[in-house]
Amino acid sequence: MTYPPPPCPADVRLALADLVTAYAMAVDDIGNAAGVASLFAPDGCYDLTSLGMDRIVGRTGIQGFFETAFATMASNAHFVGNVALGACDATAGTAQVTAYGHAFSLGTDGTLLEVKARYAFDLAQHEGTWRIARLGMTMLLPPVHIPAP
Amino acid sequence: MTYPPPPCPADVRLALADLVTAYAMAVDDIGNAAGVASLFAPDGCYDLTSLGMDRIVGRTGIQGFFETAFATMASNAHFVGNVALGACDATAGTAQVTAYGHAFSLGTDGTLLEVKARYAFDLAQHEGTWRIARLGMTMLLPPVHIPAP
Amino acid sequence: MTYPPPPCPADVRLALADLVTAYAMAVDDIGNAAGVASLFAPDGCYDLTSLGMDRIVGRTGIQGFFETAFATMASNAHFVGNVALGACDATAGTAQVTAYGHAFSLGTDGTLLEVKARYAFDLAQHEGTWRIARLGMTMLLPPVHIPAP
């Protein structure tokens, strides 16, 4: 935790939070894997190594990951919050934020997965728009698996 | 999902989010149906048609709806987040935002209802203050009904 | 609920929300009781009287409280949101905000506690940084105790 956070203009603060929210909504738009990938920089990294999974670099790979993931999902709800600024260089167009996600994922098999995670975002401006340069995540609490009713 | 969102001054962004939060707190202030209705424009619309329910227009009707709804509620907790800007015309005083709500409602009969919903807000300035011109909602995941313990 | 909220500069609004988020993250950083205490003003008050518990004044006492509390906690996740401005005097450096917290606490004994609470923050600038002058809380819904699996 960094408190107080580094100085950062209010409009940049809001733009960074917009991208975090856009990510949450994109992963809930099941079937639109290209939409998730578009939020990343072209060479952006989706880093799941701290969960024992892959580190995926580039929009094509990220889109492929979500195409596979979406195939077994019926409905998602990702609530993000606790957006905290760790670094901000508005001139260079780079920033770091952490956020919490409380996520529910209903599988096509009827099972429900509930996750409380902490996201670490490296964000960067690309052609005038903030994109995800790297997204990592860790679990705040063990995931909860609820069998189909 | 609209990313990046349209330009909108930071103070307007914060004012729009204030109204979303005020709505969540108002529906948790059980018994104060007039408080909920006051957040709507005089000709505001509470549109539950996508849930198979009514489309209510005007503060009197909205107040009546909440008087009925509150009668069977003991305690509520509406957590709102993921506030995303879809449209903003600061000059005209109109905006559109979506938001997520994670809501818990404890009935007077001891049952607990848990809802994950997506709100669609049309917001408009009325006499200098942002009010709800229309509020629609859809379910992100099926509601969960928990029997009384 | 105060709607619309009192006027307050956007950068102050963001700074107040930063402190609320920092508090949530600090109580999830189990073992770092000094980190929680540092968010309070030197004479800050952690007021749990509305929960039938103590009213603790000063950083030393607050740190001690959290040292004891953390001793039985394995993992926490505090999601805060619904940050609403009740008062703001940017010149004097004082403000009041309320916020909601959806908190999960996994005990060292494997039990899980889920809380939906409403926080009342009195915030004040101390040596140029916003700190917690007083934090009170009430329950929005009864806490849920989930036995160890």
Could you please describe the fold and organization of this structure?
Chains A, B, C: It holds the Pfam family SnoaL_4. Chains A, B, C: InterPro entries: NTF2-like_dom_sf, SnoaL-like, Steroid_delta5-4_isomerase. Chains A, B, C: Residues 12-135 form the SnoaL-like domain. The structure is a homotrimer of 149-residue chains. Chain A has 149 residues and is α+β, with helices and mostly antiparallel strands. Chain A has a single domain (10-146), classed as Roll (Nuclear Transport Factor 2, Chain: A). Chain A contains three helices and six strands, in the order ααββαββββ. Chain A has helices spanning 10-28, 33-38, 59-70, and strands at residues 40-47, 55-57, 73-89, 94-107, 112-126, 129-146. In chain A, strands 2-1-6-5-4-3 form a six-stranded mixed β-sheet. Chain A is globular and about 50 Å long. Chains in contact: A-B, A-C, B-C. The interface between A and B is medium-sized, with 29 and 19 residues.
